[in-house]
Specification:
It is built from seven helices and eight strands, in the order αβββββββααααβαα. Strands 3-2-5 form a three-stranded antiparallel β-sheet. A three-stranded antiparallel β-sheet has the order 6-7-8. It has a two-stranded antiparallel sheet with strand order 1-4. The termini are far apart. It is α+β, with helices and mostly antiparallel strands and about 260 residues long. Among the domains are: about 20-65, no CATH class; about 70-175, Band 7 domain (Tetrahydropterin Synthase, Chain A, 2-Layer Sandwich).
């Protein structure tokens, strides 16, 4: 009898062990993730770090949630202060607070970023765009981007999300506005060119007036000197003489300067 009890006891122990193994599940939380442990659908612990975990598969689940830096690109439509519509293309890099992942799962869901980011980021972009006239937004794009970055950063931090980087990749206006802006730029360039031409002509005229005044003053000084010094008159004549003596109809030539 004893001979049969020992194998039976071993079999029972083996069955109990096998049943325990069969009823025991396990999960792996990968690097860059946090595990959200739920029992009967209720979150029962703080986020689990990377590692290997045993749990009862019938009552308990471990859901992985990514905590690495992620990139989100999108475009949204906003209106300027002067009611011009502008399409904003932007890219944001973000990372959730690892210690807050259980609350994200409880309050928002596993796709928390798809639900939270649009209302935070697009709302702030539209708010800042509404503070600028369309033309001013074109010229002050860097200033507007800086304001968006600061407002979005603060709103994301309040939601336990770290903004790593934010960039506006394009501002696209309607064709009518872009044509109007282009025409205005061309008109400004033409006006500036005309202004420069006017300034150049004025400067050239002033230079000519200065030169004429200088020449007149020079002639006045020379005339005075000639009237006061006869020898200077003869000197001027010599300076202008081409070396030929003047001729008269009666023939011959005479010197026009008295030669002693």
């Amino acid at each position: 009898m004893t001979r049969y009890l020992k194998p039976l006891a071993g079999a029972i122990v083996l069955m109990i062990f096998a049943s325990g193994i069969a009823g025991c599940g396990f999960s792996i939380v990968d690097t860059g993730h946090r595990g959200i442990k739920t029992r009967f659908g209720k979150v029962v612990s703080e986020p689990l770090p990377e590692g290997f975990y045993f749990h009862n598969p019938f009552t308990t689940k471990i859901i992985e949630m990514d905590i690495r830096v992620q990139k989100w690109s999108r475009k949204t439509l906003g209106y300027t202060k002067d009611i011009q519509n502008v399409e904003v293309n932007f890219t944001v890099n973000y990372q959730p607070d690892p210690t807050h992942m259980a609350n994200f799962y409880k309050e928002v869901g596993q796709d928390w970023d798809a639900k939270l980011l649009p209302q935070i980021i697009e709302g702030k972009i539209k708010e800042i765009i509404g503070q600028y006239d369309a033309v001013k937004l074109v010229s002050d794009r860097q200033d507007a981007t800086a304001k968006m970055l600061e407002q979005i950063r603060m709103a994301m931090e309040a939601a336990h999300i770290q903004m790593v980087n934010f960039e506006i990749t394009n501002l696209d206006y309607n064709d009518a506005f872009e044509n109007a802006v282009e025409a205005k730029v061309v008109a400004i360039q033409n006006a500036e060119e005309s202004k420069n031409k006017t300034v150049r002509i004025r400067e050239e005229a002033e230079q000519q007036i200065i030169a004429a005044k200088a020449e007149a003053e020079s002639m006045r000084i020379r005339a005075r000197a000639l009237s006061q010094n006869k020898s200077l008159v003869e000197y001027e004549a010599v300076q202008k003489w081409d070396g030929k003596l003047p001729e008269y109809m009666m023939g011959g030539s005479v010197p026009f300067i008295k030669i002693k």
